[in-house]
Each structure stands twice: as C-alpha cells, then as structure tokens.
TrEMBL record:
Signal peptide span: 1-21
Keywords: Signal
Keyword Signal part of the UniProt annotation: yes
Entries under InterPro entries matching the protein: DUF306_Meta_HslJ, HslJ-like_sf, Hsp_HslJ-like
A Pfam family recorded for this sequence: META
DUF306 domain sequence ranges: 29-138
Name of the protein this chain belongs to: META domain-containing protein
Superkingdom, taxonomy of origin: Bacteria
Keyword Signal carried by entry: yes
Species, as recorded: Vibrio algicola
Length: 145
C-alpha cells in the first residue's frame, strides 16, 4: 500500500506535465498581442497564394483584430462570449479585391468562420476555430519571439 500512493502520485504528475498546455477558458489576454497564420481548413493544408501570402489573424490591444483572408484584408473587433466561451470577429470590414479560383474558396471559409460564433481551442502553438461550417487551424507566428 505504501508503494501504491507514490506510484499514483507520480502517474498524475506525469500526466499533468505531458498535456499540450491547452487553455480551458480562453480570455482576451490569452489572445492579445499574438499573430497566427492559417495552416489548415477542415483538415486540408493551406498553401501560400501566388503572392506568397497565407491567411492570418492578429489580435492587438483592446481586442482589435486584423489580418488577411489570403486575398483581401480585414479589420474588426475580436469577441469572446462570456457565457459560451465562443469567439468571433464583429464589425468586420474587408477590402473587396477580386479573388480567383482557390483564393475565393479560402476567402469565403475564413471570412464566414471568423465572423460567426465559433468554438475556440487554444494551446501554446495553435489556435483552432470551429463551427458547423468549417474548422480553421492557425499556428502561432508572433512577429517577435
């Protein structure tokens, strides 16, 4: 019996240390002053467009957000629903350049997901937003590391 207690304690400690440092309830301070680049849409890798751009999101002071959908730029206010913990960008304004081919498909998926309430999963290196339509996976790409 004396050997079981330390063994169980050690197992619990190791399990806690092996987690991916996932944030259980995301707060504005968890998101502010970070920059993420889109790596996947619905599990499919996202490549750079012909101009070398990848869709991204940056959340700054007071939850001001901006980024690129891969073709157009956007700005808005990031919000976290205090009751559900869901995320969206409200008051989104976008440029209106003509996007061709896959760029338009990517643009629609990114814009619709960011502007709708989505479940948010955050850990040290990634941000995932998912709703009934799409799942966007971003990787952390802070400007200064």
């Amino acid at each position: 019996m004396k050997k079981i207690i330390p063994l169980v304690s050690l197992s619990l400690l190791l399990a806690a240390c092996s987690s991916q440092d996932k944030v259980s309830m995301v707060t504005p301070s968890d998101l502010q002053h970070h920059h993420w680049e889109l790596s996947e849409i619905d599990g499919t890798p996202v490549a750079e467009n012909k101009f070398g751009q990848v869709p991204d999101i940056e959340i700054g002071e007071n939850m001001n957000s901006h980024g690129s959908t891969g073709c157009n730029s956007y700005r808005g206010m990031a919000e976290i629903n205090a009751e559900t913990g869901e995320f969206r960008i409200s008051k989104m304004a976008m440029t209106m350049k003509m996007c061709q081919g896959d760029a338009m498909t990517t643009e629609r998926a990114v814009a619709s997901t960011l502007s709708a309430w989505s479940t948010i999963d955050l850990n040290k290196q990634s941000l995932e937003l998912s709703n009934d339509e799409h799942t966007l996976t971003f990787v952390l790409k802070d400007w200064v590391q």
